[in-house]
Amino acid sequence: MPDIDNGTQSPCIRNCCLDDEDTCLGCFRSLEEIKEWGVVDNHRRLVILQNAKQRRKAREVWLSAAYRTGPVP
Questions:
Q1: Alpha-carbon distance 71 to 54, whole Å?
Q2: Is the dihedral of CA 34, 39, 41, 44 positive or negative?
Q3: What is the pLDDT of residues 1-56, one digit of tens each?
Q4: Are residues 29 and 52 in contact, defined by beta-carbon separation less than 8 angstroms?
């Protein structure tokens, strides 16, 4: 059984909306990461948080580029 550490806070901001790739647009965790959060150890939670951080950053870059170029005709 994993050593569950409840000290790592969930990144959930109660703004749950999944995109087409099943990634939450509120916390940027995948659906699978959200489902496993309550039963994994602290190490896995830190990996999940890092993954979410990378997804958030990638989305910000994408939105910034989309904003600069405008809508595609």
A1: 25
A2: negative
A3: 455 556 689 999 999 999 999 999 999 999 999 999 999 999 999 999 999 999 99
A4: yes
